[in-house]
Amino acid sequence: RKITASGDGTWQKRGFSSLHGVVEVLSNGPTAKVLDLGRLSKKCSICTGLLSIKYSDPKQYSEIKNKHQCEVNHVGSSGTASMEVAGIHRLFARSKMLCNVKYAQ
Q: Cα–Cα distances in Å, from 68 out to 49, 62, 65, 72, 73?
């Protein structure tokens, strides 16, 4: 099925230096609904926290570093031309698989 939708994004802070952002796809119509949303992150809190034990306990550092699921899923600018576009593109790309829909416009 084809759906007409629009996408938008927002960031943790203003400007082009935000480390985290959120994007969403909304249905167009009189009662718009959120169809999908995604979080983009340029920083992982676990990786950052691990830096404190990197040299004092290298074994534990390596063990945790290799086992954790890193939160970083965006590399590049935080601006509209990069983070928002990349996030919206991901949501559009996965719409067929997750919801069996294709965004028509």
A: 12, 10, 6, 12, 14
Q: Count of CB atoms within 10 A of residue 56's CB?
A: 8
Question: What's the predicted TM-score (pTM) here?
Answer: 0.76
Helices within the chain (DSSP H only): 45-50, 58-67, 85-99
Q: Number of structural domains, the chain?
A: 1
- Per the structure block, which two tokens stand in for 101? 């829909």
Q: Tell me whether residue 13 is in a domain.
A: yes
Q: Which of 81, 80, 51, 77 is nearest to 64 (CA)?
A: 51
Note whether residue 9 is domain-resident: yes
pLDDT per residue over 46-99, tens digit each? 999 999 999 999 999 999 999 999 999 998 887 766 888 889 989 988 888 887
Size of the chain, expressed as the number of residues it contains: 105
Q: Please indicate, yes or no, if residue 20 is contained in any of the structural domains.
A: yes
